[in-house]
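Onboarding guide, step 5: your first structure request.
Type a short instruction followed by the sequence, for example:

Predict the 3D structure of this protein.
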Amino acid sequence: MHLSNKVSNKKASTEGAYYAEVDPVSVHLRRQNQIANHHMPISPGISAYCYLMRIFLLAIMFLLPSALVLAAGKWNDPHDYYKSATRSSGDLLRNVEKFHLPQGLAKMNKKKYDRALEDFDFVLRYYPNHPKGLLFMSEVSRRMKKPEIAEKYFQKAFKMYPGYANTHSIYGIFLQKTDRMERAIEQYRKSLKLKPNASETHYNLGLALYKTGKQDGALLHAQKAYKLGYPLPGLRNKLVKAGIWKKNKPAKTKPDNVEEPSAGKEPSADKEPSAGKEPSAITPE
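The system replies with C-alpha coordinates like these:
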Protein backbone atom coordinates (compact mmCIF):
# COMPACT_ATOMS: atom_id res chain seq x y z
CA MET A 1 0.00 0.00 0.00
CA HIS A 2 2.76 2.30 0.93
CA LEU A 3 4.71 1.50 -2.26
CA SER A 4 1.58 1.94 -4.37
CA ASN A 5 0.97 5.35 -2.89
CA LYS A 6 4.51 6.40 -3.73
CA VAL A 7 4.09 5.29 -7.33
CA SER A 8 0.73 7.03 -7.57
CA ASN A 9 2.10 10.24 -6.11
CA LYS A 10 5.10 10.19 -8.43
CA LYS A 11 2.82 9.62 -11.42
CA ALA A 12 0.58 12.48 -10.34
CA SER A 13 3.59 14.69 -9.85
CA THR A 14 4.91 13.82 -13.29
CA GLU A 15 1.55 14.41 -14.91
CA GLY A 16 1.20 17.72 -13.09
CA ALA A 17 4.58 18.79 -14.32
CA TYR A 18 3.63 17.71 -17.85
CA TYR A 19 0.39 19.67 -17.80
CA ALA A 20 2.18 22.64 -16.30
CA GLU A 21 4.68 22.52 -19.17
CA VAL A 22 2.03 22.46 -21.86
CA ASP A 23 -0.27 25.02 -20.22
CA PRO A 24 0.62 28.34 -21.95
CA VAL A 25 -0.49 30.51 -19.06
CA SER A 26 1.59 28.61 -16.57
CA VAL A 27 4.60 28.63 -18.85
CA HIS A 28 4.30 32.42 -19.34
CA LEU A 29 3.91 33.09 -15.64
CA ARG A 30 6.81 30.87 -14.70
CA ARG A 31 9.11 32.52 -17.28
CA GLN A 32 8.11 35.99 -16.15
CA ASN A 33 8.93 34.96 -12.59
CA GLN A 34 12.31 33.62 -13.70
CA ILE A 35 13.12 36.84 -15.55
CA ALA A 36 12.05 38.94 -12.56
CA ASN A 37 14.32 36.91 -10.28
CA HIS A 38 17.18 36.97 -12.80
CA HIS A 39 17.06 33.21 -13.13
CA MET A 40 16.55 33.28 -16.90
CA PRO A 41 19.72 34.05 -18.84
CA ILE A 42 19.59 36.74 -21.58
CA SER A 43 21.06 35.77 -24.92
CA PRO A 44 24.08 37.75 -26.26
CA GLY A 45 22.02 38.97 -29.23
CA ILE A 46 19.34 40.52 -27.03
CA SER A 47 21.98 42.05 -24.77
CA ALA A 48 23.73 43.74 -27.72
CA TYR A 49 20.40 45.02 -29.07
CA CYS A 50 19.48 46.56 -25.73
CA TYR A 51 22.94 48.17 -25.49
CA LEU A 52 22.62 49.73 -28.95
CA MET A 53 19.10 50.99 -28.20
CA ARG A 54 20.37 52.62 -25.02
CA ILE A 55 23.13 54.40 -26.95
CA PHE A 56 20.60 55.50 -29.62
CA LEU A 57 18.21 56.95 -27.03
CA LEU A 58 21.03 58.76 -25.24
CA ALA A 59 22.22 60.22 -28.55
CA ILE A 60 18.71 61.53 -29.27
CA MET A 61 18.50 63.04 -25.78
CA PHE A 62 21.76 64.95 -26.27
CA LEU A 63 21.51 65.85 -29.96
CA LEU A 64 17.84 66.83 -30.26
CA PRO A 65 18.15 70.06 -28.23
CA SER A 66 21.16 71.08 -30.31
CA ALA A 67 19.26 70.39 -33.53
CA LEU A 68 16.33 72.49 -32.30
CA VAL A 69 18.68 75.35 -31.40
CA LEU A 70 20.28 75.20 -34.84
CA ALA A 71 16.87 75.19 -36.53
CA ALA A 72 15.75 78.18 -34.46
CA GLY A 73 18.98 79.97 -35.28
CA LYS A 74 18.43 79.44 -38.99
CA TRP A 75 14.90 80.84 -38.68
CA ASN A 76 16.19 83.88 -36.79
CA ASP A 77 19.06 84.51 -39.20
CA PRO A 78 18.85 87.42 -41.68
CA HIS A 79 17.33 86.57 -45.08
CA ASP A 80 17.81 87.94 -48.58
CA TYR A 81 14.50 89.64 -49.40
CA TYR A 82 14.72 89.11 -53.15
CA LYS A 83 15.37 85.38 -52.87
CA SER A 84 12.63 85.00 -50.27
CA ALA A 85 10.16 87.00 -52.37
CA THR A 86 10.67 84.81 -55.45
CA ARG A 87 10.30 81.43 -53.75
CA SER A 88 8.08 79.81 -51.16
CA SER A 89 9.47 80.96 -47.81
CA GLY A 90 6.60 80.07 -45.49
CA ASP A 91 4.84 82.66 -43.38
CA LEU A 92 7.90 84.57 -42.17
CA LEU A 93 8.10 87.26 -44.87
CA ARG A 94 4.33 87.63 -45.05
CA ASN A 95 3.97 88.05 -41.27
CA VAL A 96 6.92 90.44 -40.96
CA GLU A 97 5.41 92.68 -43.63
CA LYS A 98 1.81 92.37 -42.46
CA PHE A 99 2.42 93.20 -38.80
CA HIS A 100 5.16 95.85 -39.06
CA LEU A 101 5.17 97.79 -42.35
CA PRO A 102 1.68 99.37 -42.28
CA GLN A 103 1.82 99.82 -38.51
CA GLY A 104 5.21 101.54 -38.73
CA LEU A 105 4.04 103.79 -41.55
CA ALA A 106 0.94 104.81 -39.58
CA LYS A 107 3.08 105.66 -36.55
CA MET A 108 5.47 107.67 -38.72
CA ASN A 109 2.62 109.69 -40.19
CA LYS A 110 1.40 110.38 -36.63
CA LYS A 111 4.94 111.59 -35.81
CA LYS A 112 5.53 108.72 -33.38
CA TYR A 113 8.98 108.32 -34.86
CA ASP A 114 10.62 106.22 -32.15
CA ARG A 115 7.85 103.63 -32.29
CA ALA A 116 7.85 103.64 -36.08
CA LEU A 117 11.60 103.06 -36.04
CA GLU A 118 11.07 99.93 -33.90
CA ASP A 119 8.76 98.43 -36.53
CA PHE A 120 11.12 99.17 -39.42
CA ASP A 121 14.06 97.86 -37.42
CA PHE A 122 12.18 94.59 -36.89
CA VAL A 123 11.65 94.22 -40.64
CA LEU A 124 15.29 94.96 -41.44
CA ARG A 125 16.59 92.57 -38.81
CA TYR A 126 14.98 89.69 -40.70
CA TYR A 127 15.40 91.15 -44.21
CA PRO A 128 18.30 93.67 -44.25
CA ASN A 129 17.69 94.56 -47.92
CA HIS A 130 13.89 94.77 -47.72
CA PRO A 131 13.10 97.69 -50.11
CA LYS A 132 10.13 99.16 -48.23
CA GLY A 133 11.89 98.61 -44.92
CA LEU A 134 14.89 100.61 -46.16
CA LEU A 135 12.69 103.27 -47.76
CA PHE A 136 10.64 103.82 -44.60
CA MET A 137 13.69 103.66 -42.33
CA SER A 138 15.42 106.31 -44.42
CA GLU A 139 12.31 108.49 -44.31
CA VAL A 140 11.76 108.23 -40.55
CA SER A 141 15.44 108.95 -39.84
CA ARG A 142 15.27 111.97 -42.16
CA ARG A 143 12.21 113.30 -40.35
CA MET A 144 13.98 112.75 -37.01
CA LYS A 145 16.96 114.70 -38.43
CA LYS A 146 19.15 111.70 -37.66
CA PRO A 147 20.30 110.42 -41.07
CA GLU A 148 23.05 108.36 -39.41
CA ILE A 149 20.36 105.93 -38.22
CA ALA A 150 19.45 104.93 -41.78
CA GLU A 151 23.09 104.91 -42.89
CA LYS A 152 23.95 101.85 -40.81
CA TYR A 153 21.01 99.89 -42.26
CA PHE A 154 22.04 100.68 -45.83
CA GLN A 155 25.65 99.69 -45.14
CA LYS A 156 24.49 96.42 -43.60
CA ALA A 157 22.33 95.69 -46.66
CA PHE A 158 25.23 96.40 -49.05
CA LYS A 159 27.60 94.25 -47.01
CA MET A 160 25.31 91.24 -46.61
CA TYR A 161 23.55 91.26 -49.97
CA PRO A 162 25.45 93.26 -52.60
CA GLY A 163 24.51 93.50 -56.25
CA TYR A 164 20.87 94.61 -56.04
CA ALA A 165 19.91 97.67 -58.07
CA ASN A 166 16.96 98.59 -55.85
CA THR A 167 19.16 98.96 -52.76
CA HIS A 168 21.37 101.48 -54.60
CA SER A 169 18.32 103.29 -55.97
CA ILE A 170 16.65 103.66 -52.55
CA TYR A 171 19.93 104.78 -51.02
CA GLY A 172 20.19 107.35 -53.79
CA ILE A 173 16.72 108.67 -52.92
CA PHE A 174 17.76 108.97 -49.27
CA LEU A 175 20.96 110.83 -50.20
CA GLN A 176 19.05 113.11 -52.57
CA LYS A 177 16.47 114.00 -49.93
CA THR A 178 19.25 114.81 -47.47
CA ASP A 179 20.94 117.14 -50.02
CA ARG A 180 23.91 114.94 -50.84
CA MET A 181 23.44 115.15 -54.60
CA GLU A 182 26.82 113.95 -55.83
CA ARG A 183 26.62 110.80 -53.73
CA ALA A 184 23.03 110.29 -54.86
CA ILE A 185 24.11 110.53 -58.51
CA GLU A 186 26.80 107.93 -57.84
CA GLN A 187 24.24 105.51 -56.34
CA TYR A 188 21.81 105.99 -59.25
CA ARG A 189 24.58 105.22 -61.74
CA LYS A 190 25.47 102.04 -59.83
CA SER A 191 21.82 101.06 -59.85
CA LEU A 192 21.51 101.59 -63.62
CA LYS A 193 24.55 99.40 -64.26
CA LEU A 194 22.67 96.57 -62.59
CA LYS A 195 19.23 97.42 -63.98
CA PRO A 196 19.53 99.63 -67.09
CA ASN A 197 15.81 99.84 -67.91
CA ALA A 198 14.60 101.10 -64.51
CA SER A 199 12.52 104.11 -65.52
CA GLU A 200 12.26 105.40 -61.94
CA THR A 201 16.04 105.45 -61.52
CA HIS A 202 16.50 107.36 -64.80
CA TYR A 203 13.90 109.85 -63.58
CA ASN A 204 15.55 110.32 -60.16
CA LEU A 205 19.00 110.61 -61.73
CA GLY A 206 17.61 113.25 -64.10
CA LEU A 207 16.27 115.21 -61.12
CA ALA A 208 19.61 115.02 -59.31
CA LEU A 209 21.53 116.10 -62.42
CA TYR A 210 19.12 118.99 -63.01
CA LYS A 211 19.56 120.20 -59.42
CA THR A 212 23.35 120.17 -59.80
CA GLY A 213 23.18 122.19 -63.04
CA LYS A 214 23.98 119.29 -65.38
CA GLN A 215 21.09 119.96 -67.73
CA ASP A 216 22.29 117.89 -70.68
CA GLY A 217 22.54 114.81 -68.50
CA ALA A 218 19.16 115.61 -66.95
CA LEU A 219 17.60 115.80 -70.43
CA LEU A 220 19.19 112.51 -71.49
CA HIS A 221 17.86 110.56 -68.50
CA ALA A 222 14.49 112.30 -68.64
CA GLN A 223 14.05 111.13 -72.22
CA LYS A 224 15.03 107.59 -71.24
CA ALA A 225 12.61 107.62 -68.30
CA TYR A 226 9.66 108.77 -70.39
CA LYS A 227 10.52 106.43 -73.24
CA LEU A 228 10.33 103.57 -70.73
CA GLY A 229 6.87 104.80 -69.72
CA TYR A 230 7.51 106.70 -66.50
CA PRO A 231 4.31 108.63 -65.63
CA LEU A 232 5.28 111.63 -63.46
CA PRO A 233 5.74 114.88 -65.45
CA GLY A 234 7.76 116.81 -62.84
CA LEU A 235 11.18 116.48 -64.46
CA ARG A 236 9.84 117.20 -67.91
CA ASN A 237 8.11 120.33 -66.62
CA LYS A 238 11.36 121.57 -65.11
CA LEU A 239 13.17 121.02 -68.41
CA VAL A 240 10.41 122.74 -70.38
CA LYS A 241 10.57 125.72 -68.02
CA ALA A 242 14.35 125.87 -68.48
CA GLY A 243 13.84 125.83 -72.26
CA ILE A 244 15.88 122.69 -72.89
CA TRP A 245 13.17 120.10 -73.46
CA LYS A 246 13.36 118.97 -77.08
CA LYS A 247 10.34 119.20 -79.34
CA ASN A 248 10.78 115.59 -80.38
CA LYS A 249 10.01 114.41 -76.86
CA PRO A 250 9.32 110.72 -76.47
CA ALA A 251 5.87 109.23 -76.63
CA LYS A 252 4.16 107.33 -73.81
CA THR A 253 4.13 110.32 -71.47
CA LYS A 254 1.10 110.93 -69.30
CA PRO A 255 -0.84 114.22 -69.16
CA ASP A 256 0.63 116.89 -66.89
CA ASN A 257 -2.15 116.48 -64.34
CA VAL A 258 -1.16 112.88 -63.59
CA GLU A 259 0.68 112.84 -60.27
CA GLU A 260 0.30 109.31 -58.91
CA PRO A 261 2.67 106.56 -60.08
CA SER A 262 1.05 103.37 -61.29
CA ALA A 263 1.25 100.17 -59.21
CA GLY A 264 4.53 98.35 -59.44
CA LYS A 265 6.71 101.45 -59.91
CA GLU A 266 9.63 102.30 -57.65
CA PRO A 267 9.40 105.26 -55.25
CA SER A 268 10.39 108.64 -56.60
CA ALA A 269 12.84 111.07 -55.03
CA ASP A 270 10.43 113.98 -55.46
CA LYS A 271 7.54 112.33 -53.60
CA GLU A 272 7.30 111.44 -49.91
CA PRO A 273 5.15 108.65 -48.48
CA SER A 274 1.66 110.10 -48.14
CA ALA A 275 -0.39 109.84 -44.99
CA GLY A 276 -1.86 106.37 -44.54
CA LYS A 277 -0.51 105.13 -47.86
CA GLU A 278 2.62 103.17 -48.72
CA PRO A 279 4.69 104.09 -51.75
CA SER A 280 4.14 101.78 -54.67
CA ALA A 281 5.79 98.38 -54.52
CA ILE A 282 9.29 97.65 -55.71
CA THR A 283 9.46 94.51 -57.77
CA PRO A 284 12.27 92.01 -57.19
CA GLU A 285 15.29 92.03 -59.48
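Each response can be followed by summary notes, for example: The chain has 13 helices and no strands.
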